[in-house]
């Protein structure tokens, strides 16, 4: 079953159960300052769960474009290292706004997986929140999952409600206990069952999370009861496709096969020669073209702050991986036609914006290709000393002068088992910020012109750094 058929089957199944099919919302949340990017299907329904907004329906189903590259849900560092994480992915979901609750949600999920997608029941494992006896009983007594394959997951991650089975959108917002469904990819893949010490392998893959929305968490950490118990579920389309296409990695599903082929072609033509088709770098590139393109579609452009900086970090990371494979001229934007071919029907906004996305990416590539070679030389020289840690000054210089976001430097280092002195980097950053402020004040006092200031201060390319005051100096 192709990914597009899986998406269709999911939506039609829930439509047959009285759900309204609702279009994906943009990856840039329109009116939610607490969110960097849309990270789950429920985001667009947040106010409905909270009781602030009413819809004409009490059941909905979506295939939602999601980005997890910042904030509470950040999988950027996982990409290229696990078989299951993307920065951009599609989340299939069904939602009940004070309509059905645990019984129906669990039974719908089971029916869809075992009868429509025909997954063998014995390959499925489930987890429930440790205190949720009700969900446990439904799985065990009503659905008939044997106790050996139901795992209770407690608050073992640093305090109450810090469990994998207590889902939160972010530090604030709707949340509640959840039950997750895992698929066992079989003994030839490494990894242990959920809840075991080696659960993070690629053998037992979490495919679907069913959240029983019951609370709204406010900034003070207090859990307020929602007006009505609700249901929010999310299943990664790519993970389900891997299962249904009998492959063990998301990168082997139909949509990624096409993207990987195009990425290889683009890298090869840009200097890669005949690069290794199985390289993890190609997977990173194929992943990142999706995240970059969909954020640009929704209006983000690469920049030094906020969403623009996340986009820049993802794009430059992809470019660096192409460089690693031998590319010496822009290649990344050339994957766009393949992406549009794969996803343009499901998301027409992508097809519409193709020319703009291509141009934005091409410009970012041209900019970064001007400095990447010298930056990589500096980093390679530092790594050649055999150090186990790159010092903060070097990381800062790479960032400040060569446009290497620090996580890009860390990504290169990680490949060689080396870390980056983040504290040293932060200190160098803070020092430069203080110097810049002082210089700014001095110049202001002296009534000097500010030409060239923008380039002089391109070093503030750090998400966590407070640029507001510095910017104010120039604006004034
Ligand atoms: P994991 O534990 O594997 O990181 P998660 O528990 O963080 O997943 P949820 O927040 O429960 O994920 O999201 C619901 C579903 O979305 C998951 O069950 C999975 O199928 C899918 N999903 C989550 N993160 C990713 C990702 N980075 N790439 C692809 N699919 C994902
Ligand atoms: Mg996760
Ligand atoms: Mg999980
Ligand atoms: Mg989960």
Explain what the structure shows.
By secondary structure, the protein is α/β, with parallel strands linked by helices. The strands form 2 sheets. Strands 1, 2, 3, 4, 5, 6, 7, 8 and 9 form a 9-stranded mixed beta sheet that branches. It is globular and about 65 Å long. The termini are far apart. Helices cover 44% and strands 16% of the residues. A hairpin with a 4-residue loop joins β6 and β7. The relative contact order is 0.09. It contains 16 helices and 11 strands. It is an enzyme of class 6 (ligase). It catalyses: tRNA(Ala) + L-alanine + ATP = L-alanyl-tRNA(Ala) + AMP + diphosphate. Its main location: cytoplasm. It is found in: Cytoplasm.
Describe how the helices and strands are arranged:
Layout: H1 3-16, E1 20-21, H2 46-50, E2 59-67, E3 88-96, H3 102-116, E4 124-129, H4 133-143, E5 150-153, E6 166-168, E7 173-184, E8 204-217, E9 223-236, H5 237-244, H6 254-272, H7 280-297, H8 306-324, H9 336-343, H10 348-352, H11 354-384, E10 389-390, H12 392-402, H13 406-415, E11 419-420, H14 422-446, H15 453-456, H16 468-475
Parallel strand pairs: 1-2, 4-5, 10-11
Antiparallel strand pairs: 2-3, 3-9, 4-7, 6-7, 7-8, 8-9
This protein binds adenosine-5'-triphosphate and magnesium ion (3 copies).
Residues 68, 75, 84-86, 89, 91, 206-209, 234-236, 238-239 line the site of adenosine-5'-triphosphate (ATP).
